[in-house]
């Protein structure tokens, strides 16, 4: 019964630490490639003059700290949410990766993901990404948090990601 857009727009962009305000989203989607446009140093996230959602920024930080070169790499982002999927896709593009966004209407998602050097799974479907989706040597970041039944556990459930970890960890 609450209009999400009214709430998001009620927060001043400078205080929108989730980066969801339309002005922050527009800033993230502006590439700065046009003549006269302000250039942003996307390798120094502390210099970005607007808020970016923290999970996508954390994904880039994880890739940086792991020494993953993004320039020229194929990246697949599984999920197109405003909070993770779309912002992480934009951040990857700002780092010169070639990005494909995979979503529920994507035809043959496994073959698209299989071509990626970097995979960010942020779809919200428990263990959807299987081992045969991931090429050897790919870097995989699983953002998913899903609850699945686990009668053997004390709580009756367990948390799993969007990637079938047990099956994919040997890739």
Which descriptors apply to this entry?
alpha/beta, 4-stranded parallel sheet, 171 residues, 27% helix, two-stranded antiparallel sheet
Structure at a glance:
With 171 residues, the chain is an alpha/beta fold.
Helix coverage percent: 25-40%
Morphology call: globular
Largest sheet: 4 strands, parallel
Strand proportion: 15-25%
The sequence of SSEs as H and E is HHHEHEHEEEEH
Radius of gyration computed on alpha carbons: 17 Å
Oligomer: single chain
Structural class: alpha/beta
Mean pLDDT: 93
Number of helices: 6
Q: Runs with pLDDT <50, length 5+?
A: none
Strand order, main sheet: write it out: 2-1-3-4
Explain how this protein is built:
This protein is an alpha/beta fold. 27% of the residues lie in helices and 15% in strands. The strands form two sheets. A four-stranded parallel β-sheet has the order 2-1-3-4. It has a two-stranded antiparallel ribbon with strand order 5-6. Strand 5 (146-149) and strand 6 (157-160) form a beta hairpin. Helix 3 crosses helix 4. The longest helix has 12 residues, at 54-65. The chain is globular and about 50 Å long. The model has no long low-confidence stretch (mean pLDDT 93).
Secondary structure topology:
Layout: H1 4-10, H2 22-29, H3 54-65, E1 74-78, H4 85-94, E2 98-102, H5 109-114, E3 118-121, E4 139-142, E5 146-149, E6 157-160, H6 165-168
Parallel strand pairs: 1-2, 1-3, 3-4
Antiparallel strand pairs: 5-6
């Amino acid at each position: 019964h609450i209009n999400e857009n009214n709430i998001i727009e009620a927060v001043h962009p400078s205080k929108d630490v989730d980066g969801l305000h339309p002005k922050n989203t527009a800033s993230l989607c502006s590439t700065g490639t046009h003549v006269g446009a302000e250039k942003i140093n996307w390798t120094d996230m502390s210099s970005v003059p607007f808020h970016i959602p923290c999970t996508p920024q954390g994904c880039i930080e994880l890739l940086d700290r792991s020494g993953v070169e993004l320039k020229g790499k194929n990246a697949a982002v599984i999920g197109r949410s405003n909070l993770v999927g779309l912002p992480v896709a934009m951040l990857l593009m700002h780092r010169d990766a070639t990005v494909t966004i995979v979503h529920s209407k994507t035809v043959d998602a496994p073959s698209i993901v299989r071509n990626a050097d970097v995979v960010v799974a942020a779809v919200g479907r428990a263990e959807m990404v299987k081992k045969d989706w991931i090429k050897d040597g790919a870097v995989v970041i699983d953002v998913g948090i899903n609850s699945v039944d686990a009668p053997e556990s004390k709580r009756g459930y367990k948390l799993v990601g969007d990637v079938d970890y047990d099956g994919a960890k040997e890739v």
